[in-house]
Amino acid sequence: MEAKAIARHVRVTPRKARRMVDLIRGKQAVEAITILKFAPQDAAVPVRKVLESAIANARVKADKAGEAFRENDLVIKETYVDEGVTLKRFRARAQGRAGRINKRTSHITVVVAQKEGNR
Protein backbone atom coordinates (compact mmCIF):
# COMPACT_ATOMS: atom_id res chain seq x y z
CA MET A 1 0.00 0.00 0.00
CA GLU A 2 1.26 3.44 -0.83
CA ALA A 3 -0.14 6.91 -0.28
CA LYS A 4 0.69 10.24 -1.83
CA ALA A 5 0.40 13.89 -0.82
CA ILE A 6 1.02 16.99 -2.91
CA ALA A 7 1.31 20.62 -1.82
CA ARG A 8 1.06 23.10 -4.65
CA HIS A 9 2.02 26.78 -4.82
CA VAL A 10 4.13 26.64 -1.65
CA ARG A 11 5.92 29.96 -1.11
CA VAL A 12 9.39 28.40 -0.87
CA THR A 13 11.93 28.34 -3.68
CA PRO A 14 12.36 24.88 -5.21
CA ARG A 15 16.10 24.89 -4.57
CA LYS A 16 15.63 25.37 -0.82
CA ALA A 17 12.84 22.78 -0.64
CA ARG A 18 14.98 20.23 -2.53
CA ARG A 19 17.61 20.47 0.21
CA MET A 20 15.05 19.28 2.75
CA VAL A 21 13.62 16.61 0.48
CA ASP A 22 17.10 15.18 -0.14
CA LEU A 23 17.57 14.79 3.62
CA ILE A 24 14.56 12.50 4.05
CA ARG A 25 14.48 10.48 0.82
CA GLY A 26 14.48 6.73 1.56
CA LYS A 27 14.15 7.08 5.34
CA GLN A 28 11.39 5.84 7.63
CA ALA A 29 8.50 8.28 7.87
CA VAL A 30 8.71 8.72 11.65
CA GLU A 31 12.46 9.38 11.48
CA ALA A 32 11.95 11.86 8.63
CA ILE A 33 9.41 13.85 10.66
CA THR A 34 11.92 14.10 13.51
CA ILE A 35 14.66 15.26 11.13
CA LEU A 36 12.41 17.95 9.64
CA LYS A 37 11.14 19.06 13.04
CA PHE A 38 14.65 19.95 14.19
CA ALA A 39 16.03 21.25 10.88
CA PRO A 40 16.80 24.97 11.16
CA GLN A 41 15.76 25.79 7.58
CA ASP A 42 12.39 27.44 6.97
CA ALA A 43 11.67 25.09 4.06
CA ALA A 44 11.46 22.16 6.50
CA VAL A 45 8.00 23.25 7.72
CA PRO A 46 6.04 22.81 4.46
CA VAL A 47 7.91 19.60 3.62
CA ARG A 48 7.05 18.19 7.06
CA LYS A 49 3.38 19.13 6.60
CA VAL A 50 3.24 17.31 3.26
CA LEU A 51 4.89 14.25 4.82
CA GLU A 52 2.39 14.25 7.70
CA SER A 53 -0.43 14.54 5.16
CA ALA A 54 0.91 11.52 3.23
CA ILE A 55 1.02 9.51 6.46
CA ALA A 56 -2.58 10.51 7.22
CA ASN A 57 -3.59 9.51 3.68
CA ALA A 58 -1.97 6.10 4.23
CA ARG A 59 -3.91 5.69 7.49
CA VAL A 60 -7.23 6.46 5.77
CA LYS A 61 -6.39 4.13 2.87
CA ALA A 62 -5.56 1.29 5.29
CA ASP A 63 -8.80 1.85 7.22
CA LYS A 64 -10.85 1.70 4.02
CA ALA A 65 -9.11 -1.50 2.94
CA GLY A 66 -9.50 -3.03 6.41
CA GLU A 67 -5.74 -3.51 6.81
CA ALA A 68 -3.72 -3.01 9.97
CA PHE A 69 -1.85 0.30 9.98
CA ARG A 70 1.51 0.82 11.65
CA GLU A 71 3.14 4.20 11.22
CA ASN A 72 6.58 2.74 11.98
CA ASP A 73 6.38 0.52 8.88
CA LEU A 74 6.07 3.44 6.46
CA VAL A 75 9.07 4.40 4.33
CA ILE A 76 9.43 7.39 2.04
CA LYS A 77 9.39 5.76 -1.36
CA GLU A 78 9.49 8.85 -3.53
CA THR A 79 9.77 12.58 -2.91
CA TYR A 80 10.47 15.45 -5.23
CA VAL A 81 10.02 19.18 -5.67
CA ASP A 82 8.89 20.79 -8.92
CA GLU A 83 8.88 24.46 -9.79
CA GLY A 84 5.53 26.19 -9.48
CA VAL A 85 4.32 29.48 -10.91
CA THR A 86 6.47 32.56 -10.46
CA LEU A 87 4.74 35.51 -8.85
CA LYS A 88 5.88 38.77 -10.42
CA ARG A 89 6.03 41.87 -8.24
CA PHE A 90 7.14 45.41 -9.02
CA ARG A 91 8.65 47.94 -6.66
CA ALA A 92 8.98 51.61 -7.57
CA ARG A 93 12.57 52.79 -7.80
CA ALA A 94 14.21 56.17 -8.21
CA GLN A 95 13.90 58.22 -11.44
CA GLY A 96 10.75 56.46 -12.62
CA ARG A 97 12.23 52.97 -12.88
CA ALA A 98 10.48 49.90 -11.58
CA GLY A 99 12.44 47.03 -10.05
CA ARG A 100 11.13 43.57 -10.83
CA ILE A 101 10.93 41.02 -8.02
CA ASN A 102 10.24 37.36 -8.82
CA LYS A 103 8.75 35.23 -6.05
CA ARG A 104 9.20 31.54 -6.77
CA THR A 105 6.83 28.81 -5.63
CA SER A 106 7.15 25.04 -5.39
CA HIS A 107 5.07 21.90 -5.81
CA ILE A 108 6.16 19.36 -3.17
CA THR A 109 5.23 15.67 -3.61
CA VAL A 110 5.78 12.87 -1.08
CA VAL A 111 4.92 9.19 -1.61
CA VAL A 112 5.06 6.82 1.37
CA ALA A 113 4.78 3.04 1.23
CA GLN A 114 5.04 0.10 3.59
CA LYS A 115 8.39 -1.60 3.91
CA GLU A 116 8.89 -4.58 1.66
CA GLY A 117 8.12 -7.80 3.53
CA ASN A 118 5.67 -6.20 6.02
CA ARG A 119 2.29 -7.19 4.65
TrEMBL record:
Q: Which residues fall in a coiled-coil region?
A: none
- Which lineage? Bacteria, Bacillati, Actinomycetota, Actinomycetes, Bifidobacteriales
Protein name (database record): Large ribosomal subunit protein uL22
Provide the leader sequence positions. Answer: none
Family, according to the entry, reads as follows: Belongs to the universal ribosomal protein uL22 family.
> Keyword DNA-binding: yes or no?
no
Subunit architecture:
Part of the 50S ribosomal subunit.
Recorded hits in NCBIfam families, A to Z, give: rplV_bact
Name its species.
Answer: Bifidobacterium aemilianum
Q: Note the InterPro entries from the entry.
A: Ribosomal_uL22 (IPR001063), Ribosomal_uL22_bac/chlpt-type (IPR005727), Ribosomal_uL22_bac/org-type (IPR047867), Ribosomal_uL22_CS (IPR018260), Ribosomal_uL22_sf (IPR036394)
Offer one Pfam family short name for this entry.
Answer: Ribosomal_L22
The answer to whether UniProt assigns keyword DNA damage to this entry is no
Q: What molecular function terms (GO) are annotated for this protein?
A: rRNA binding; structural constituent of ribosome
Show the GO cellular component annotation of the record.
cytosolic large ribosomal subunit
Q: Please provide the record's keywords in A-Z order.
A: Ribonucleoprotein, Ribosomal protein, RNA-binding, rRNA-binding
**SUPFAM superfamilies found in the cross-reference section:** Ribosomal protein L22
Q: What does this protein do?
A: This protein binds specifically to 23S rRNA; its binding is stimulated by other ribosomal proteins, e.g., L4, L17, and L20. It is important during the early stages of 50S assembly. It makes multiple contacts with different domains of the 23S rRNA in the assembled 50S subunit and ribosome. The globular domain of the protein is located near the polypeptide exit tunnel on the outside of the subunit, while an extended beta-hairpin is found that lines the wall of the exit tunnel in the center of the 70S ribosome.
What's an example Gene Ontology biological process for this entry? translation
